[in-house]
Design goal:
This protein has about 300 residues and is an alpha/beta fold. The protein contains twelve helices and nine strands. The protein has a seven-stranded mixed β-sheet with strand order 5-4-3-1-6-7-8, with helices on both faces. The protein has a two-stranded antiparallel ribbon with strand order 2-9. GO terms for molecular function: RNA nuclease activity.
Length: about 300
């Protein structure tokens, strides 16, 4: 608009509008300044167990070591608090795999921790996670798009996470990659390292308090009295009752179609627990192991 064509009243009105706009901008900036930054922690449990297990105990086999998830999560929260000093925690997202997405007892206990959200992908027959990366991307992108977080600490190493990082960054969030010290070579994909806003490696001393190798119980079958088949069958039923109480009837429904076979992880846990109760090794005792499985199955089937 040409100022020569504007009268004094028009100029005054224009000036008032500009002042009003400036006032609104100042208020908006003041509100933004008062709003604290928010961060979240995203943990790929598959990477965590494999890398931390190898670092501390020399093996990636989850059955060979124990992880104090509650203590470790607290340590991760404290680490984030020291890095993002002027930011508040939204929550910790814990991504893991489970057969048919049914929580294990361990995963359930983690889900019950304060400020922790457990998200499950599938676990295939080779114990490989499927769908976890897409869950991480979905959460990262959604939280960044809705301005729910300004910073994301991502503990992972898979190249497939690159798209998750790009999606979050596209909405203005900063993504900070946390890794686990590798005894040899590197356990994080280079394209992922290139894409993130910062990198940090957590070392052996960080994980030592939370990862410990399991002590394998040994039983001398030659000096112990061999249990009767009915005793072993009864122990199988006892363990089934405990298993049912921990996992619920829904887990039984998922298990029944596989009868008379048990998934490898369930069968292994059944064997270890039975040996502890019997104080007798069932290795190489095919007839007693069949009795153990029979007792386990009979109790579960009796519930339906």
């Amino acid at each position: 608009m040409n100022d020569d064509l504007m009268g004094p009243d028009d100029l005054a009105m224009l000036g008032a509008r500009i002042d009003r706009t400036n006032e609104l901008l100042h208020r908006m900036l003041a509100e933004v300044a008062k709003t604290p930054s928010t961060h979240a922690i995203f943990v790929d449990a598959g990477y965590l167990y494999a890398a931390a297990g190898r670092l501390v105990t020399g093996t990636e086999d989850r059955r060979a070591f124990d992880l104090d998830a509650e203590g470790l999560i607290e340590a991760l929260i404290d680490k984030a608090r020291s890095i993002f000093a002027d930011s508040r925690l939204l929550r910790v997202y814990w991504y893991d795999g489970a057969r048919r997405r049914i929580h294990t007892a361990e995963q359930q206990s983690i889900a019950e921790l304060p400020d922790v959200k457990v998200r499950l992908g599938n676990l295939n027959a080779n114990n490989q996670q499927k769908g976890v990366d897409s869950l991480i991307r979905s959460d990262l992108e959604s939280l960044a798009r809705h301005r729910a977080i300004s910073d994301a600490a991502l503990l992972g190493g898979d190249e497939d996470l690159v798209s998750a990082v790009e999606a979050a960054q596209g909405y203005g969030a900063r993504v900070h990659l946390w890794g686990i010290e590798a005894p040899e070579n590197r356990n994080q994909a280079e394209p992922l390292l290139w894409e993130v806003d910062s990198q940090r490696t957590l070392d052996l001393e960080f994980f030592k308090p939370y990862v410990s190798r399991r002590t394998a119980a040994t039983y001398d079958a030659s000096s112990a009295t061999r249990p009767a088949r009915e005793d072993v069958r009864f122990v199988g039923a006892q363990i089934a009752a405990k298993w049912l109480a921990e996992r619920g009837r829904g887990a039984v429904v998922e298990l029944l179609p596989g009868h008379p076979y048990l998934p490898g992880s369930v069968d292994q846990d059944l064997l270890v627990e039975a040996e502890g109760l019997l104080q007798y090794s069932l290795r190489g005792q095919a007839d007693l192991r069949r009795a153990l499985r029979d007792g386990f199955w009979e109790h579960l089937q009796a519930q339906y």
